[in-house]
From TrEMBL:
Source species of the chain: Ignicoccus islandicus DSM 13165
Protein name in UniProt: Uncharacterized protein
InterPro entries: DUF371, Mth639-like_dom_sf
Annotated Pfam families: DUF371 (PF04027)
Length: 81
């Protein structure tokens, strides 16, 4: 299960991988709800992409999704238990 209290983890997704600003994208256990946003940190543009991933799939699938929508994206991990 996802750890409680780890909401709002921000990551930069690019063609080279995931670089996290706060926390780590791959430190969660179980499933996490992920909202992929494109744009700047102050005014992100929410994409129609909201799904659940296991910890194993987070980095790989988010990087693949970012490649489809552009090389740069802001990711917010909404963690629940």
């Amino acid at each position: 299960m996802c750890r409680e209290g780890r909401k709002g983890v921000l990551c930069i997704i690019s063609r080279y991988g995931a670089t996290c600003i706060q926390g780590k994208c791959n430190q969660f256990e179980g499933s996490c709800k992920i909202i992929l946003r494109k744009g700047s940190f102050k005014s992100p543009e929410t994409l129609l992409y909201d799904t659940n991933f296991s910890a194993y799939d987070i980095d790989r699938d988010l990087i693949n999704a970012a490649r489809l929508w552009g090389v740069r994206a802001v990711v917010t991990l909404m963690v629940y238990q």
